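Example 3.2
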Amino acid sequence: MLKKLALVIAFSTLTAGVVYAAGGAGTGIVGSMHDINSAGGGTYQHDKYERVCVFCHTPHNAQPNGATPAPLWNHAPSTVNNLDPYNWASPANGSIAFNADPLVGPSRLCMACHDGVTAVDSHGTAGSQTGSTPLTASYQDSLGNTAKRFIDDLTVTHPIGFLYDDAATTRGAGEIRPSTSGFINSPVTASFDTVTRAGVTETPKKIKDTLYSGYMTCASCHDVHNSVNAKPDAGHNYNYFLYAKQEGSAICLSCHVK
């Protein structure tokens, strides 16, 4: 049975290698590419008080509880729906549960900036600041290719909106790591044993800690607050807000057994 599922890697389009210096990995939200006052080289309308958190959260006059799956949400909601989903064409996936909303949980919040339509610099409900600049620019990635900073095609990104434990059970331990596993935080070398993980250390943060009610979302891979974001190895220049490094495909091998 073919399953369709939408997917987004919303944050991986945030930064090119050339902007790694802007808020280094693991240094927090201020000055990072999620600090709208500093992101985009002054393209966006700054908050009048130069606040950083307020573009997404507010202590008062937040959107009604339950309207969005985030605490004290303060950003203009995305109006984009019905994007073509990823088609995970494998009969082996037949027993994996998919949410009716593929953008369940944080994924829809990511789209409030990364849909290419909603203004990134619009926030607030009471006395709101109405920005008008959506995330539509392109950039040069670390491989020298042109990439978009927004998502308008869900058919070409990693699957989300499915129960991770269902996938781990259905595909088996030979393909998917259990959600109790941590993210890889040591180098993946040519002698890396994908099955036993011999010699590999893991982060205290477990895969299950990044799931939304068990569902895989954008925030299952991406550290949106740049708090435990993995630093690249020396000589590499990227900042994709990831829980594990790109080198050796550590972020991929944290979940996949290959």
